[in-house]
Amino acid sequence: KAKARFRGQCIFFDATDSEEMKNTIAIERELREGNLEQELVLLFQPQYSPSKKRVISFEALARWHNPRLGLVSPNDFIRVAERSGFIQKVTAILFRKGLAELKKWPDDISLSFNLSARDISDQAFVLSLLAQIMKEEVSPSRLEFEITETAVMSDLATASTVLDRLRSSGCRVALDDFGSGYSSFEYLDQLPLDKVKIDRSFVRKVPHSIISREIVAAIIALCSKLNLRCVLEGVETQEEMAVLAGLEPDLIQGFLFGRPMSGEDAGQLIRDQQQSNANQTVLPIQSA
Ligand code: C2E
Ligand code: MG
Ligand code: MG
Ligand code: MG
Fold first, then answer.
1. How far is 213 from 202, CA to CA, in rounded Å?
2. Is the ipTM of this complex over 0.90?
3. C-beta separation of 121 from 89 below 8 A
4. Secondary structure element (H or E) that encloses residue 13, with its range
5. Cα 234 to ligand 1 centroid, rounded to whole Å
6. Residue nearest atom 17 in ligand 1 by C-alpha distance
7. Which atom of ligand 1 is nearest to the CA of 199?
8. Which of 119, 123, 176, 260 can pair with 45 through a Cys bridge, CB separation 3.0 to 4.6 Å?
9. Structure pTM?
């Protein structure tokens, strides 16, 4: 076991820790030296409205194609970018790319964009995103920002102010991964929100667990009482869908309705859907 001393404290690393350390260091180096403008891309995952029987929005999901690291998952690089101070640079690049794609789509399609803790702890940065929306002449109502409770936890007051600002500018705010944390319900009261995304950890258990189904049903009912839209995240199978559809969520997102796809493919999906709506048929469900 490797052992390191930091300020008199003993910290033990096991093999996986030191692997992770190496990864973190490599990711940090590439964040500094890589060509992020070129290497960062967005994929877009459809969000399907069961009542409208069509896709009404896409969530932008980051991918990083780095020549030395290969394909890096956002779960890996967002965390490192946060810690090492690169996150706003990353977010700014991704947001510009997201807006460029959104501009190509019809007005009734919107975009959900993930923000992380350091993004929303900085009011000036959030204002720069709003300025970008104005400059690109996109209607703010077509933009939704997704935040997680971990991102607001450390400074709830600043987060509230920033989210108010986004909403008063006409953008929407969604609480992501709802139910995966510790005190989720408190945030419904404390944060200015438009939407709640119910975490996949519940959705996954629904076919086999009556309790999970009741929890999802209760959250959906609560959202409706609080005038919040709700999204079911990570619906993968027809089996899950059969149970969940009856609960009448506002939106469903998951591999069953579409995996994260390129901007080009998203554009094609929108055109296909316009075509099939004109023919009075519903969007065919893609197999996962
Ligand atoms: P998230 O915002 O909760 O996004 C949903 C994640 O679930 C995505 O993973 C998506 O690909 C995955 N997913 C969607 N449907 C299904 C399904 O049916 N089954 C399963 N198993 N998974 C599904 P992804 O793209 O790897 O992103 C992971 C997380 O990284 C995101 O979770 C988000 O927290 C973060 N992230 C992604 N892009 C960005 C970004 O541009 N900025 C920031 N700050 N965070 C991002
Ligand atoms: Mg999200
Ligand atoms: Mg989520
Ligand atoms: Mg997540």
1. 8
2. yes
3. no
4. strand 9-13
5. 9
6. 234
7. 3
8. 260
9. 0.92
